[in-house]
Amino acid sequence: MRNPTVYLEMRVLGAIDMAEGKTIRDRIKAVSQMTFTDEERPRRFTWLRASWWFSPRTALSAN
Fold first, then answer.
1. Which segments within the chain are labelled E, that is strand?
2. How close are the terminal C-alpha atoms of the chain, in Å?
3. How do the domains of the chain map onto residue ranges?
4. What is the pLDDT of residues 18-40, one digit of tens each?
């Protein structure tokens, strides 16, 4: 499987931002149940992979 495009990563991060949940972890786990389409292929990402994408951006925006 190819690496996801930046566009798809941004869609996942946007979904995390808008997801229901009290904590970031709850929201990431909710998004991990969703399917995203990239180049006409449905893809799902584990909560761990989505959290890797989210974590560095959160750390950078805190500064």
1. 36-38, 41-43
2. 35
3. 6-61
4. 999 998 889 988 988 988 887 76
